[in-house]
Specification:
It contains twelve helices and ten strands. The protein is of the alpha/beta class. An eight-stranded mixed β-barrel has the order 1-2-4-5-6-7-8-9, surrounded by four helices. Helix 11 (242-251) links the parallel strand 8 (233-236) and strand 9. Helix 3 packs parallel to helix 5. It starts with 19 loop residues before the first helix and ends with a helix. The model is unreliable at 1-7 (pLDDT under 50). The structure holds ligand C2E and calcium ion (3 copies). One calcium ion binds at residues 180-181, 201, 203, 237.
Length: 280
């Protein structure tokens, strides 16, 4: 009951005030977590506002810590980045998401894509392209069913050629590219035309106070219009109320994701949610 009501948020992040010894301990625990299958992906549905159809899932990682309970990504991803463990975690997330989606497709569930988050560090340090090609080949998931979510900060370093090539190669493979937390990063929008982007995800902070905040409604309206002019899909994150969904439908937003529709679900709960959604 109320599973996933962000019950992990009561824990402080690992990094604040921890001693070098504690950090060493945590690093060891996180390494063990990878080996002992303590990491788990939850899947949050995204729907198309025009048709009401399920449009995809975002995969969000959790750590089922044997003593501390369920830890959310904000409590260990930054730590993992700092201690050089993000590549291993990212690779696991990618393979697991592809494997799970392929299994659902094979089980006859409607074919929708899965989105995985790539932190800026991963795009710089990991051979992401090789990892993605390997994950797709190993699991048999077609590239069109994979999306990567990256934040604006990744795209802001003045035309980084390596990065540009990775994104072009992903696009050539058929992997979708979304800008996560759109609007929170930088004021320059020049990167939107420099990189092959498919989708903007409007950050939750702009959605929370709609429809009441006149300013936020103006910002969301402008982003949706810009997305449409640039032929990008626009997804609103953090949609919690029917009023917010009605406003976004009215404004012509393409997709929504948020607690109003569903919290991120553990994999075993997805098929029944899917079934209920499809038949309502
Ligand atoms: P994000 O990519 O912006 O993911 C959306 C976050 O908002 C998720 O938190 C989700 O549970 C939460 N959320 C979704 N709908 C609502 C809503 O209606 N209201 C509210 N209040 N919150 C909502 P979560 O799962 O704690 O993830 C936090 C962040 O951790 C993610 O933010 C993403 O940046 C990062 N993250 C998650 N999984 C991964 C991963 O596998 N790899 C990397 N590198 N980062 C990850
Ligand atoms: Ca995301
Ligand atoms: Ca986001
Ligand atoms: Ca975020």
């Amino acid at each position: 009951k109320e599973y996933g009501r962000a019950n992990y948020q009561i824990y402080a992040p690992f990094m604040t005030g921890s001693t070098p010894y504690e950090e060493l301990l945590l690093e060891r625990e996180l390494r063990e977590a990878l080996e002992n299958h303590q990491l788990q992906l939850h899947y949050q549905p995204q729907i198309c506002l025009k048709t009401g159809a399920l449009a995809g899932f975002e995969a969000l990682v959790r750590w089922h810590h044997p003593q501390r309970g369920i830890l959310g990504p904000l409590q260990f991803i930054p730590f993992a980045e700092k201690r050089g463990l993000i590549a291993s975690i990212g690779r696991w997330v990618l393979f697991e998401a592809c494997r799970q989606l392929k299994a659902w497709h094979d089980a006859g569930l409607p074919k929708v894509p899965v989105a995985v988050n790539l932190s800026p560090l991963e795009l710089r340090q990991r051979d992401v392209l090789a990892d993605i090609q390997k994950a797709l080949a190993t699991t048999g998931l077609a590239a069109q069913y994979l999306e990567v979510e990256i934040t604006e900060s990744v795209l802001m370093q003045q035309s980084n050629p390596a990065q540009h090539n990775i994104l072009r190669a992903l696009q050539a493979l058929g992997v979708g590219i979304s800008i996560d937390d759109f609007g929170t990063g930088y004021s320059s929008l020049a990167y939107l035309k420099r990189y092959p982007i498919d989708k903007l995800k409007i950050d939750r902070s702009f959605i929370t106070d709609t429809p009441h905040s006149v300013d936020d409604v103006a910002i969301v309206t402008a982003i949706i219009q810009m997305g449409r002019s640039l032929q990008l899909k626009v997804l609103a994150e953090g949609v919690e109320t029917a009023e917010q969904q009605a406003l976004l439908t009215h404004l012509g937003c393409d997709l929504v994701q948020g607690f109003g529709l569903s919290r991120p679900l553990p994999a075993h709960q997805v098929p029944s949610w899917w079934h209920r959604w499809g038949t309502q």
